[in-house]
Amino acid sequence: MSDAVSISRPADGVAVVTVDFPPVNAMGQEVLAGLEKVFSQLRDDSATRAIVLTGAGDKAFMAGGDISSFERLLAEDGAMDRFSAWTRGIFEIIEVIPQPLIGAVQAPAVGGGLEIALLCDLLVMDANAKAGLTEVGIGLIPGGGGTQRLTRRVGLSIATELMLTGKVIRAPQALEIGLVNKVSEAGKALADAVELATSIAAKPAVAVQAAKRAVREPGRADLEAGLELERALFLKAFASADCKEGFQAFLEKRAPQWTHS
């Protein structure tokens, strides 16, 4: 198991998966490999009846890939294609895990961080946290399922506005639009998520898991088709001149100069 991803067991039947990879819990190879191993282990663990996913620290729930590492992905032919396929496989392991999965969003969930939060069945968000899909600001689109899962969570109109503008919203608005299930007092998101997980873990596991599957599974075929389209469009945007400029501008801390090509 990666040192960046750990499991604790605060209550009977409850596992807490924590990503601790300073400074912002970025989903590079170490974190992704850790998540893959942990969730592959938990899915076959009958003693685990509910799971909480959270990040360590107050800078981010989780962040997307490290922008500086994208230079290598840009330079190596097919590298981003392979990386995105690997990431999608890991996200699917997390999303289809039979146990209910509760996200404890203790800090901002932006870009890839929100995409992984959207894998959760329920979300508890700290009062001071924020959320958004901001990829358009660097010449990209969400590539970890955000275009599909955000739309399914909050509806077409709101999801479209958030993605086209790159707007970041605060916790009360996230609750209002149905993105999260509960807003906790500052510093209490994890505790509230564990409390919720404990109450679910006390219910009969066969019924709980059947209910999750009944809700989730009917939309899987449409989701798979949408994810395939998203991936193709993400790779097209990744290969654009504006994406290269967006990365460079981000690293140089300047405003990008778009050529729309």
Automatic annotation (TrEMBL):
Keyword line: Lipid metabolism, Lyase
Entry coiled-coil feature ranges: none
Protein name stated in the entry: Enoyl-CoA hydratase
Lineage: superkingdom: Bacteria
Gene3D superfamilies from the UniProt entry: 2-enoyl-CoA Hydratase, Chain A, domain 1, Lyase 2-enoyl-coa Hydratase, Chain A, domain 2
Keyword Ligase applies: no
UniProt xrefs under InterPro entries: ClpP/crotonase-like_dom_sf (IPR029045), Enoyl-CoA_hydra/iso (IPR001753), Enoyl-CoA_hydra_C (IPR014748)
Family statement: Belongs to the enoyl-CoA hydratase/isomerase family.
Pfam families xrefs: ECH_1
CDD domains: crotonase-like
Organism listed in the record: Amycolatopsis acididurans
